Amino acid sequence: MAYEVAAPKYVRLAQTLQRRIEDGTYPPGSRVPSENQLVQAFGMSRPTVVRALELLKRDGWLESRQGFGTIVRGRPEVVEQKDRRGRDALERDESSVEGRFVQVDQVPVPSRVASLLGVPKQTSVLVRRLLVERDGEPVELSSSYFSAGLVEGTELSVPSPLREGQRAHLEARKKVRFDHVTERVSARLPSREEADLLAMPQGEPVLSVLVVACDVAGQALQVTDVLLPADRQELEDTYRLG
Question: With helix as H, strand as E and coil as C, how does the chain read?
Answer without folding.
Answer: CCCCCCCCHHHHHHHHHHHHHHCCCCCCCCECCCHHHHHHHHCCCHHHHHHHHHHHHHCCCEEEECCCEEEECCCCCCCCCCCCHHHHHHHCCHHHCCEEEEEEEEEECCHHHHHHHCCCCCCEEEEEEEEEEECCEEEEEEEEEECHHHHCCCCCCCCCCCCCCHHHHHHHHHCCCCCEEEEEEEEECCCHHHHHHCCCCCCCCEEEEEEEEECCCCCEEEEEEEEEECCCCCEEEEEECC
